[in-house]
Structures are given as C-alpha cells and as structure tokens.
Write a structure and sequence with these properties.
By secondary structure, the chain is mainly beta. The protein is built from one helix and 14 strands; from the N terminus they run H-E-E-E-E-E-E-E-E-E-E-E-E-E-E. The chain folds into three domains: 30 residues; 63 residues, SH3 Domains (SH3 type barrels), CATH 2.30.30.40; 57 residues, SH3 type barrels (Roll), CATH 2.30.30.40.
Length: 171
C-alpha cells in the first residue's frame, strides 16, 4: 500500500470509531441501559447501609445515606456499575450496583393500609400496615398487589404502596 494511503485509512478507522462511540451515546441517551435491563425499574436496597452520591463514582461526594435494607428504590439511569436511584420521597442520587437487589419490595404510603385475604375490598382483613412498613411484593395484577409483610400475606390496592409501576404485572 502506498505511503500516502495509510493516513487516509487511519482517518477512516478513527471516523468509524467515532461513529460507534456516538451511536453508543445516542442509545444510552435514548433510554438504553448499561445492564440491558429496562430503565426505569424498581429494585430494593441490598445493603444495610448505602452511600448515595451526587454522581456516578467514588470521586463524587456522599449526599445522603440509605439505612433500611429492603427499601424499594427506582433505577432511573445507569452509568457503568453505578445506578441513579429515586426513593419513595423523590430524592435522587447514585449508588454502586452491588448495593442493590432484584428482590421486589414496596413501602406502605401515607396512612394505615389494610392487607386483605383476597384482591377484593370486602375480603377479610389479614393485617393492618403502618405507613413506612416495607413488604416483599409477591405478585401484582390490575389494581391489587399481594404482599408479605413480616409473615402476614395478603392483598393491598396498588395505590396504597410505592415500589410497583402503575402498569406493571408481577407473577
């Protein structure tokens, strides 16, 4: 290959590389994710304590600390091994993915909620749950979700909890 063509092929390779980088950036900006999982999505806090940072990395300062294992959070963005989360109060920040779990939980919202034996407003009561109680989500369909709150299992209207999307079905 003549000497004059080598720089041109290097320029072409550089241009292709830049195109690949730009395509990756566009995909991530358009709602793609590092993990390949949907964003946004709900997960729970795996660790007993997790530092929530102002940005995706240890060089960013700790803004606040989550201290309730099992607390549901919503992943709203991803960057490498970091997840931007939102808690039930709307506060956002970045945590390392190792601090999170795929176990689905929900937090009881605003007032005492009734857990029922079946997905029916007239069904017998199995428990009363205080605001802030964290329960494991067993299933959701339609307007109701089945929870396990400290061994008490039952159904609760989806509107009484945070940790499940409005249109989400879980089996």
């Amino acid at each position: 290959m003549p000497e004059a063509q080598r720089p041109l092929s290097a320029i072409r390779r550089s241009f292709r590389f830049a195109l690949v980088l730009a395509a990756g950036w566009l995909l991530s900006a358009a709602g793609g994710s590092e993990s390949g999982l949907p964003v946004p999505r709900f997960v729970s806090l795996h660790a007993q304590k997790a530092n929530v940072r102002t940005g995706p990395g240890v060089r960013y300062p700790v803004d606040w600390v989550l201290v309730r294992r099992g607390m549901p959070v919503e992943i709203v963005a991803e960057f490498e091994h970091w997840r931007k989360i939102r808690d039930w109060q709307g506060t956002e920040g970045w945590v390392h993915q190792s601090m999170l779990s795929g176990v689905r939980t929900a937090v009881v919202m605003n007032e005492v909620r009734v857990l029922r034996r079946s997905a029916d407003a007239q069904a017998p009561v199995t428990a009363r749950l205080e605001p802030g109680v964290i329960a494991r989500v067993l299933s959701c369909g339609g307007a109701w979700c089945r929870l396990d709150a400290a061994g008490f299992k039952g159904w609760i209207p989806r509107t009484g909890i945070w940790g499940v999307s409005d249109d989400e079905t879980l089996d």
